[in-house]
Design a protein that fits this description.
Helix content is about 45%, strand content about 25%. By secondary structure, it is an alpha/beta fold. Strands 3, 4, 5, 6, 7, 8, 9, 10, 11 and 12 form a 10-stranded mixed beta sheet that branches. Strands 1-2 form a two-stranded antiparallel sheet. It is flat, with a radius of gyration of 21 Å. The two termini are about 40 Å apart.
Length: about 290
């Protein structure tokens, strides 16, 4: 048994369906089911009974879930003790995606550096939200900057809403503000099928009744922009990418109705080092609804 298995047990108990638990953990549902079955075989007990399309925690499972939560809390407490032992002059590691880096670099980092000149801030660059979540979970980063939602084992502090815009190669016959209906038949560069971000886009398309054409699939932001520059298709991205896109000769258009995502600072459920607490306090002090 390992900590990851304990997290799986707790998430499954909290969400009551394998599908929802897997989504919160950013893993595939079959992988979660196999991990739970393997743990049940290892322990020689049934933790979850299948009930319709969901699961019910058994009597033995309730005891295991309680102990799993206590064990995870103990690990977080030990990590917090280690955090308190750090000196004031240390490193702060922040995980983020390239699309959100401009906002951090232009607004938050200069203000933080002015207040905390002895702290060295290191940026852990990740391809997407899953990478940010992984970096925070694996303690390769103290904080993460990403859009919500994030898994239940992380805490998110909302900062602002960022607009999703259409980034296109030049020459397309489109209005300055693109009605959502115009996405039907449009060639788009989309996240890989099965990823959390792709599911969100697919849900948005279904909500508005549009059916774009998948021109390419990639989870790497640099690759997505390269596809747009090559004329493969358009890209749905944050307004923060505007400067980068314009330098590349691309065209930025708003959508109608507007689409916005909540950007948040996220961290693990443990006591943060003081330098991370200071950064969070500064960010929240200047947050926008």
């Amino acid at each position: 048994m390992n900590l990851q298995q304990l997290r799986y047990v707790v998430a499954t108990a909290e969400h009551r369906t394998m599908t929802d638990a897997a989504r919160s953990l950013y893993i595939a549902q079959p992988a979660l089911s196999r991990a739970i079955r393997d743990l049940e075989r290892e322990l020689g007990m049934t933790l979850f009974a299948r009930s319709g399309r969901g699961v019910v925690v058994t009597a033995q499972g309730r005891r295991v879930v309680k102990l799993a939560k206590e064990a995870l809390d103990a690990v977080h407490e030990i990590e917090s003790l280690a955090g308190h032992g750090r000196s004031a002059d240390t490193d702060l590691r922040i995980a983020l995606t390239p699309s959100l880096e401009p906002a951090l670099a232009t607004r938050l980092l200069p203000a933080y550096a002015e207040r905390n000149p002895a702290v060295r801030v290191h940026i852990v660059r990740c391809d997407g939200r899953d990478g940010v979540v992984s970096a925070v979970r694996d303690q390769r980063a103290d904080l993460g900057l990403t859009d919500l939602p994030v898994p239940a084992d992380l805490i998110g502090h909302p900062l602002e809403r960022q607009e999703i815009v259409l980034i296109s190669p030049p020459g397309l016959d489109l209005p300055d503000t693109v009605p959502m209906a115009r996405l039907t038949g449009m060639r788009l560069v989309l996240p890989k099928r099965g990823s959390a971000r792709r599911r969100e886009f697919d849900a948005m398309f279904a909500k508005h009744g549009v059916r774009p054409v998948t021109a390419a699939e990639t989870d790497e932001r640099g690759s997505s922009m390269a596809h747009v520059r090559a004329g493969v298709g358009s890209l749905l991205g944050y307004r923060g990418l505007t400067e980068q896109a314009l330098r590349a000769g691309l065209v930025i258009r708003s959508l109608e109705p507007p689409v916005r995502r909540v950007i948040a600072i996220v961290h693990a459920r443990r006591r943060l080092p003081l330098i991370a607490q200071d950064f969070l306090a500064l960010a929240e002090g200047g947050s926008a609804a």
